[in-house]
Specification:
Strand content: 15-25%
Shape: globular
Strand order of the largest sheet: 1-3-2-4
Oligomer: single chain
Number of strands: 6
Radius of gyration: 14 Å
Order of helices and strands: EHEEEHEE
CATH architecture: Beta Barrel
Number of helices: 2
Helix content: 10-25%
CATH topology: Cyclophilin
Distance between the termini: 22 Å
Largest sheet: 4 strands, antiparallel
């Protein structure tokens, strides 16, 4: 997966956490190209998102990725450009953070 957002440190644009909507509720599974909210505990997701590369059912409700079993809140899908997502994932990184961040200029809701 690739992850993006404001980072893990305090940021002046940090948003309040949102209500956690599990994949059991939304029925949006963590399949190749799914966009989801990164979080620590349920209800703490704010600005960090990630894009799944390949299917990742362990991120769904009752998956094994988080000990609490609530999984992550999936909310969208990459509809074109997965080749670019894979190129970004292949860039040099340290602890899930790219050495040279990439700015996202726009996201379109269809």
């Amino acid at each position: 997966m690739i992850q993006g957002g404001l980072g893990f440190d305090e940021h002046h644009l940090k948003l309040e956490g949102i209500t956690h909507e599990t994949t059991e509720i939304s029925n949006i599974k963590h399949l190749n190209g799914t966009i989801s909210m990164a979080r620590m505990a349920p209800g703490t997701a704010s600005s960090e998102i990630f894009i799944c590369i390949n299917n990742q059912p362990e991120l769904d409700f009752k998956g094994l990725r988080n000990p609490d079993g609530y999984g992550f809140a999936a909310f969208g899908k990459v509809t074109s450009g997965m080749d670019i997502v894979r190129k970004i994932q292949a860039l040099p990184s340290i602890q899930q953070m790219l050495n040279d961040p990439i700015k996202v200029d726009s996201i379109i809701r269809n």
